[in-house]
Each structure stands twice: as C-alpha cells, then as structure tokens.
Design brief:
The chain is an alpha/beta fold. It has helices at 36-49, 81-85, 88-99, 121-134, 154-161, 173-178, 180-189, 197-206, 209-212, 220-237; strands at residues 5-10, 65-67, 110-114, 140-141. The protein contains ten helices and four strands; from the N terminus they run E-H-E-H-H-E-H-E-H-H-H-H-H-H. Helix 5 crosses helix 8 (197-206). The longest helix is centred in the C-terminal third of the chain and has 18 residues, at 220-237.
Length: 240
C-alpha cells in the first residue's frame, strides 16, 4: 500500500473542531478532528499529488493525505500559535522536528504555516529566518482578511446546515473583504445558524472550487502555487 502524504498545518490553534485535541505530537489526526484550514490544505494539495485531478467530498477519508498533530513546543511555557509563528526561536524547533530532524527520517513530508493575511508580516519574516537557517521551505498561506473569506458562501452554508436551496443570501463582497468572520455570522443569523469550529470544518469540505476561486483578493488562488513550490523544494531536498 502506498504511504500517505503526511502534512502538518500550523496556525489553527488548539480547538480545531471546537474541542481541544489530545493527540500525541506527530501522530495522525482523524478526519473528524481536523479543522477547516487542514481540510482546505488537503483540498489544495490533492491536485498537485494526483496529476491535476480535483478533490471532492467522496475523498474526505481516503485522499491519501494524512494530517499529523504538530510537534510539541520545547519551551518553559507553552505559547499560543500566533506567538510561535512570530518568533523564529519558538518556530525553529517545530520546523526541525517536522521536516528537518537532526537524526532519523522526517515524520512529515510538508509543513505548512497559516495566518490571517492582514496581520501576517511578522510571521512571514519569522518563517523566512527559519527557512533560511534550516534550509527548509515552509510556505505561509494567508487568507484575506481571514479564513472565513474562503468559507462564507451560500450553497455551502445551505448544505452544511440543511437549508433549502436559495434560502441563504449571497455574501456581500465588500463586507466579506472588510470582516469575513462578521459576514459569515450575518449569513448564519438569517436562519439562526450557530457559528462554531466544527461547522467551519464542514464548510471547508462543501464550499465549491468555483466559490473558493471567486475573489482573487481572498488568497485562495495563491495557496496552490505556494504548496506546489514547497512540495518541489522538499522533493529536491530529499533527492526524489
């Protein structure tokens, strides 16, 4: 059996599906415990690993991509992931443990960092420092202004929340660009829908590729190119 392609996504925080994950570091995370960004990363990676074939929901549990729990922090006091991503000294041990171990084989094939686009400059600099020092290529995916800009679409909301077709309004692009989280909450309030991490993960499965690529400014179109470059760099590093 072909080995799964193993990825680690940094930046989702501790409550991927609304409940703290207690999975040991570098162990597989079941699909039911993956967060929205982890699912979206799998969706963007799948065509790169499968000759351009598009991802679909039927592949949710068998797309050949395995999400791993991030490495444990090696700090006296655990930091929030936003702080880790901004600090090269805190970030370097995580990248090293995942894809540049001092000894042995790397447990992951790819490490991906994510951060809301408007506040990502410090994170981008920190990742650049660590990539340079470790000879790595960790990409930074930046949804603009935040991940909800990739999720707040009427048909996906209708499917996830069991609403009839055309009963949820279209998102307002200006509002989405200004505050995507607030716009998603507005769409949900039209029928009393609850805003939570588990539902967002489901939206990540249901949102169509057409909707994901609708707005250039949202950053989805750059995600595939970032992942493609990172994958190519890792293959080169490993002599494959």
């Amino acid at each position: 059996m072909k080995r799964p392609f193993r990825i680690i996504v940094l930046g989702e925080g501790k409550d991927e599906r609304g409940k703290p994950r207690t999975i040991p570091p570098l162990q597989a995370v079941s699909h039911s415990q993956q967060g929205a960004m982890e699912i979206l990363v799998r969706r963007a990676l799948y065509p790169l690993l499968n000759d351009g074939q598009p991802w679909h929901r039927g592949l949710a549990n068998n797309d050949g991509i395995q999400v791993l729990q991030p490495p444990a922090q090696r700090l006296p006091r655990a930091l929030g992931m936003v702080a880790v991503l901004a600090d090269p000294n805190a970030l370097a041990p995580l990248i090293s443990a995942a894809i540049r171990p001092v000894r042995g084989t790397a447990p992951a094939d790819l490490l991906i960092a994510t951060h809301d686009g408007e506040d990502a400059d410090v994170t981008l600099r920190a990742i650049g420092v660590v990539n340079s020092s470790l000879g790595a290529y960790v990409p930074l995916l930046r949804p603009m202004p935040e991940i909800q800009a990739w999720l707040a679409y009427k048909r996906a909301i209708e499917q996830v929340y069991g609403r009839e077709h055309c009963t949820v309004p279209e998102p307002d692009e200006a509002a989405l660009k200004r505050d995507a989280k607030a716009e998603l909450q507005r769409l949900l309030k039209t029928f009393g829908g609850r805003f939570d991490a588990a539902r967002q993960a489901q939206l990540a499965e249901y949102v169509s590729l057409e909707d994901l690529t609708r707005f250039e400014w949202a950053g989805w179109n750059e995600a595939g190119e970032e992942l493609k470059a990172a994958h190519a760099a890792e293959l080169l590093h490993r002599g494959q």
